[in-house]
């Protein structure tokens, strides 16, 4: 199999009970400049991120998380990761899901997964998605041209990768932060779902991918005073979304 050019070394954690699959993925990603630690169940994966004895842990740059695990499902593992203290809660999560379960993918995104990949998958696509997440995280590629954008009481700091409303921090995943930045940088311009996803992921996606709407709902819940009657991110029926230039 032809491999893509290697990238700088990153540390990944794969939580997957299929040891044969984990070995195959580890070998392939290893040949492309990534180091993969493997845990076979949710409990050991969570302890790798935040040791039960309170000791320090070297956090991975990304977690590859299987939905079906022997001790707890991947959705519960993802919930617990996002509920952790400190930097562990912000580690990007790429969830592996069954191909025929779109609802599991939607729920995974709603509880904080940054992306998903249905099984069976091509290792090359997994690598491409990992690279895209790491670029969004800011660990690969150039830094943003400028730091903060302000829209009324909403402040988006691209260098610190933080969002605040009236000084209060907003809880967004890495992918949701980049979706918000993509919209804010094009304030006043109506964007289709495909245009938004292209701006963030840098590649074409399926026209019927519903994940964009799930993420928009999460972003609105974080930054809108009334998410059911949004004033910052507006839906343009039949087209997509527009980020309001004038806000409170």
Provide structural commentary.
Residues 146-245 form the OmpR/PhoB-type domain. Keywords: DNA-binding, Phosphoprotein, Transcription, Transcription regulation, Two-component regulatory system. Residues 11-134 form the Response regulatory domain. This protein is 35% helix and 21% strand. By secondary structure, the chain is an alpha/beta fold. The chain folds into two domains: 10-137, Response regulator (Rossmann fold); 148-243, Winged helix-like DNA-binding domain superfamily/Winged helix DNA-binding domain (Arc Repressor Mutant, subunit A), CATH 1.10.10.10. The chain has a five-stranded parallel beta sheet with strand order 2-1-3-4-5, sandwiched between helices. Strands 6-7-8-9 form a four-stranded antiparallel beta sheet, with helices on one face. The chain has a three-stranded antiparallel beta sheet with strand order 10-12-11. The longest helix is centred in the middle third of the chain and has 15 residues, at 123-137. It starts with 9 loop residues before the first strand and ends in a 5-residue tail after the last strand.
């Amino acid at each position: 199999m032809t491999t893509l050019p290697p990238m700088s070394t990153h540390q990944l954690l794969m939580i997957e009970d299929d040891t044969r699959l984990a070995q195959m993925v580890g070998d392939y990603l290893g040949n492309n400049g990534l180091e993969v630690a493997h845990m076979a169940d949710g409990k050991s994966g969570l302890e790798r991120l935040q040791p039960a004895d309170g000791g320090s842990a070297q956090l991975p740059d990304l977690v590859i998380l299987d939905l079906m695990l022997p001790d707890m499902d991947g959705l519960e593992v993802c919930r617990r990761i996002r509920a952790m203290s400190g930097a562990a809660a912000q580690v990007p999560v790429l969830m592996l899901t069954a191909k025929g379960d779109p609802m599991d993918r939607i729920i995974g995104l709603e509880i904080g997964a940054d992306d998903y990949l249905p099984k069976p998958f091509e290792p090359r696509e997994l690598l491409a998605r990992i690279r895209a997440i790491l670029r969004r995280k800011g660990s690969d590629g150039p830094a943003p041209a400028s730091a903060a954008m302000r829209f009324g009481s909403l402040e988006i700091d691209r260098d610190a990768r933080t969002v605040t409303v009236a000084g209060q921090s907003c809880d967004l995943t890495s992918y949701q932060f980049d979706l918000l930045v993509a919209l804010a940088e094009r304030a006043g311009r109506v964007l289709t779902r495909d245009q938004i996803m292209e701006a963030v992921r840098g590649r074409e996606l399926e026209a019927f991918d519903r994940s964009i709407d799930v993420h928009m709902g999460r972003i609105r819940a974080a930054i809108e005073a009334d998410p059911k009657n949004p004033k910052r991110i507006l839906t343009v029926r039949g087209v997509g979304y527009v980020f309001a230039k004038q806000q409170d």
